[in-house]
Structure formats: structure tokens, C-alpha cells
């Protein structure tokens, strides 16, 4: 169990797989989140961020790294 104030970090590939459960495999967001061990709110946020990256509104991880260099 995590203590209050401790935040878990998820790798981009993990997020991509979680998003795929909901968007490609027909799981509801709450069921997909439960299956991968996160919250429905996290999964909703990841889906929103992915859509923003695909539309060019938000930089993806690779683009952010390039910008930082």
C-alpha cells in the first residue's frame, strides 16, 4: 500500500496498453483501469492526453525530450 503523497509512475508503453484495452478491445474505462491496476481517472486522463498528442495539441514524450535537448 502506498502512503499518502506517494505517486506511482507508469511507463508510456504501459499507458498505451491500458488505453488499447478501452479503445480497441471493448473494455469499459473502469474495467480496463481495474485490469491494469490503476484508477479510471488516470485512464481517462491518459486517453485525453493521447488524443491531444495525436492532434498535435500536446507534445509526446519523444518530442519533449527533443525540445529539452
TrEMBL record:
Q: Which Gene3D superfamilies match?
A: Homeodomain-like
Q: Which SUPFAM superfamilies match?
A: Homeodomain-like
Similarity comment text for this entry: Belongs to the transposase 8 family.
Name of the protein this chain belongs to = Transposase
Where is the organism placed in the taxonomic lineage, from the top? Bacteria, Pseudomonadati, Pseudomonadota, Gammaproteobacteria, Cellvibrionales
Amino acid at each position: 500500500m502506498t502512503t499518502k503523497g506517494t505517486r506511482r509512475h507508469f511507463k508510456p508503453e504501459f499507458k498505451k496498453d491500458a488505453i488499447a484495452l478501452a479503445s480497441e478491445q471493448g473494455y469499459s474505462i473502469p474495467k480496463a483501469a481495474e485490469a491494469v491496476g490503476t484508477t479510471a481517472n488516470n485512464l481517462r486522463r491518459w486517453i485525453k492526453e493521447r488524443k491531444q498528442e495525436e492532434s498535435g495539441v500536446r507534445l509526446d514524450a519523444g518530442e519533449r525530450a527533443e525540445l529539452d535537448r
